[in-house]
Design a protein that fits this description.
single chain, 20 strands, alpha/beta
């Protein structure tokens, strides 16, 4: 049995839409074994893990809180509700009781007031039965589903509502509060309304799929779910690791068979006997003589007994040290990252130890690990899933008799753990991305491979292409790009020059420096492969790409400049897909080294749809059309001192030939030879970027200007981040 999905309504930051969390089923092993993926490591933990990711304060922790609210029936307060939802109810009360003009008290319209919706929150849970009916007991569901209905892919839907227990009393309190304020010619504050909610009792009610109320005597939801929450916060105890290692050792010893366990238990008995004889017998009389001064010995005698047992042996007598360069270091000096990892593992082992040994289970067992990345360095975060997986496999072992049937949920804002999950399981499945919409409601995007491939290739004829691009995306995203899940916006560039320089310009921008904008160098025109994922996440994405104009061999050798785009062709895959869609492709290239090209429209606008914009060198700069960022930068700043100093230092002989010797320099020649500069810098782009950046930072003059197409893109990004409603959906 497993939790398939959870819909959260009006709880904390969740509203009424985009509010469904999907979970991986507990019998994942059977599913993966039936259709194994050669590129998948079949990680125990990764495949069994549901990942909840998103930026801070988006609602990740709310998922765990929601499960706890449903299961434990926690007390409802005003802050338990979505505050925007309560504000809406509050405004309705004001409108009904005060008329359209809130400053002019008109009448107490109690009948209309009684029609206003009462505060409520609800949760819809879909519980699936295992594909193997033998592994699921229907004992706790006997009043909801018959034994013969326990078939493959059977789903049980439960709706849990929290409603006001005494509605009339609640209405009276709200009504009197508004009346009292009106008589005093005061306006009711929202905080007063929240206090009324705080002092209102709510009852938990459970309904079946047909909306029928289930009586508590027939079904108890607490008997269906078992929730274990593991928090990664470290305490200050100097022996905190001892408790973790003790749990691991005790767990292994309990499962051990043979002489080792027997010898240990015999030694404990021998120690108790020794202590009884040498301490008890020696000191019983002394203690009883003292007692006899207070009361009659016939009424009370004291016997000193040793109470050493298996548990106290580990908890009180054993301490751990670690060895470093032949020195034994106290455990309180163990690295925080490793300590945190071990504490998480120890809590999981503790859960496993208490798990009932049974072939069939009648509970949905959920383990939530909250933000495990605390105190871990990036490399440890990257290996987190694998480390937990390896440790559990080693500890549980093949001989373990327990049928562990649990779902693991991890909430995180670590891009490294996202990488760990994707690459351990080789899939985007079972990742829930939570962001906030324009009204600050939590917005859930459930990711999976199918959603991405459907956006890549909606036509079945492109299925092979979709699979290849998905495979590339899963591998390529490892190289830092997973940060996009936690960014306010992203910028995709093709090369190292753009990556380094634009990052600096962003940090100096008054409009953009306050946002978390990530720049990703995707090393080529691959932005179109990322677009399906970006569309799902709805993160503003600016793509800065090059024209990549196709030139003849003679034009390349002569460094021929281009002054217009008429009948020019591009080899850029991104432009071919989004800008040249109405143009016919050129003939297949005759040379195997050549790329396929398509005719560029001479007057095409930038491509812009929703949160996705592509900018490129569509307009001439100082008389010439650039086909790369470096050429565009030179054409824009050919007279700037910082740029000339960089070119002269980096390519002194070429600079002397193009621009001239000292005293005879003609910077205008760099504009006339911009394509030649592009070719000469092709093998040293990293040096160009770093040298130019050094000169910009250390110079006392204003930095060179970014090319206009990039400024246009950053202006669009600024408006997007400021929720500018005037932006058009198509074309800029």
């Amino acid at each position: 049995m497993y939790l398939q999905s959870l819909q959260i309504t009006n709880f904390r930051k969740f509203g009424t839409k985009n509010n469904i969390i999907e979970f991986v089923q507990s019998d994942y092993k059977k599913a993966t074994e039936s259709k194994p993926d050669e590129s998948t490591s079949q990680s125990f933990v990764a495949c069994a893990t549901t990942l909840i990711i998103g930026k801070n304060n988006a609602g990740k922790t709310t998922v765990t809180k929601a499960l706890k609210q449903v299961i434990d029936n926690d007390n409802i307060l005003g802050a338990s509700f979505n505050l925007s939802y309560l504000n809406g109810l509050f405004d309705k009360y004001k409108k009904v009781l005060f008329g359209l003009n809130k400053d002019n008290f008109l009448d107490f319209r109690k009948d209309e007031f009684n029609k206003v919706e009462l505060p409520n929150m609800k949760f819809r849970l879909k519980v699936g039965l295992d594909t193997d009916p033998k592994s699921t007991s229907t004992q706790n569901l006997s009043n909801l589903i018959s034994i013969e209905d326990n078939t493959i892919n059977k789903l049980i839907t439960l709706e849990v509502k929290f409603i006001i227990a005494e509605s009339e009393q609640y209405k009276e309190r709200v009504y009197k509060t508004f009346c009292s304020a009106a008589k005093r010619e005061h306006e009711v504050k929202f905080s007063e309304f929240l206090r009324i909610i705080d002092n209102t009792n709510f009852s938990r009610q459970i309904y079946d799929i047909k909306g029928r109320l289930i009586k508590n005597s027939l079904f108890n939801i607490n008997n269906l779910f078992e929730l274990t929450t593991i928090k990664a916060n470290l305490d200050d105890g100097e022996t905190s690791l001892s408790s973790v290692f003790n749990k691991i050792v005790q767990y292994r010893l309990k499962d051990e068979e043979g002489d080792s366990r027997v010898r240990l238990e015999n030694e404990i008995l021998n120690i108790n006997d020794f202590m009884d004889r040498h301490i008890g017998e020696s000191h019983n009389d002394i203690v009883n003589n003292v007692v006899s001064q207070i009361t009659d010995q016939q009424n009370m005698l004291v016997h000193l007994r040793s109470s050493l047992d298996f548990k106290s042996l580990f908890n009180k007598l054993i301490r751990y040290e670690f060895e470093e360069n032949n020195n034994y270091i106290p455990e309180n000096q163990f690295g925080l990252g490793y300590s945190n990892l071990m504490k998480i593992l120890g809590q999981i082992i503790d859960y496993v130890e208490q798990y009932e040994e049974s072939e069939a289970h009648d509970k949905v067992n959920i383990i939530c690990i909250e933000e495990p990345e605390n105190f871990m360095h990036p490399q440890m975060q990257e290996l987190f899933i694998k480390n937990i997986d390896d440790a559990l496999n080693l500890l549980l072992g093949n001989h373990n008799s327990k049928n562990i049937n649990s779902q693991l949920i991890i909430t995180t804002h670590s891009s490294h753990i996202v990488n760990s999950k994707i690459h351990s399981s080789n899939t985007f499945n079972n990742i829930n991305y939570i962001t906030t919409d324009e009204d600050n409601f939590s917005n859930v995007v459930t990711l999976n491979d199918k959603k991405i491939t459907d956006k890549i290739a909606p036509e079945s004829t492109e299925e092979a292409t979709a699979k290849d691009e998905l495979k590339f995306l899963k591998k390529h995203i490892k190289y830092k790009v997973s940060e996009l899940f936690f960014s306010d916006a992203i910028v995709l560039v093709e090369g190292v020059t753009e990556e380094h320089l634009i990052q600096h310009y962003l940090s100096e921008s008054k409009n953009l420096q306050k946002y978390g904008i990530s720049i990703f160098n995707i090393n080529g025109a691959f932005a179109h492969i990322y677009k399906p994922l970006i569309d799902l996440l709805k993160i503003p994405c600016l793509v800065i790409t090059d024209l990549d104009i196709k030139r003849s061999k003679a034009d390349k050798e002569n460094f021929k400049q281009i002054d217009k785009l008429d009948n020019r062709e591009t080899t850029n895959a991104v432009l071919q897909k989004y800008v040249c869609i109405e143009k016919l492709p050129d003939e297949e290239p005759s040379d195997e080294d050549e790329s396929k090209s398509i005719i560029l429209p001479s007057d095409s606008p930038y491509y812009c749809i929703d949160n996705f914009m592509i900018v490129f060198q569509k307009d001439a700069i100082n008389g010439f059309v650039a086909s790369s960022f470096e050429e565009a930068y030179i054409l824009t700043n050919y007279e700037h001192k910082t740029l000339n100093k960089t070119l002269k230092e980096l390519k002194p002989r070429i600079y002397k030939r193009i621009v001239g010797a000292s005293g005879l320099e003609n910077t205008n020649q760099s504009k006339e030879k911009s394509f030649e500069w592009q070719c000469k810098l092709a093998s040293s782009k990293s040096d160009f970027a770093n040298t130019l950046l050094y000169e910009i930072i250390t110079s006392n003059i204003n930095a060179p200007q970014l090319p206009k197409y990039i400024e246009d893109g950053l202006d669009w990004l600024t408006k997007k981040l400021n929720n500018d409603k005037s932006l058009q959906n198509k074309g800029v």
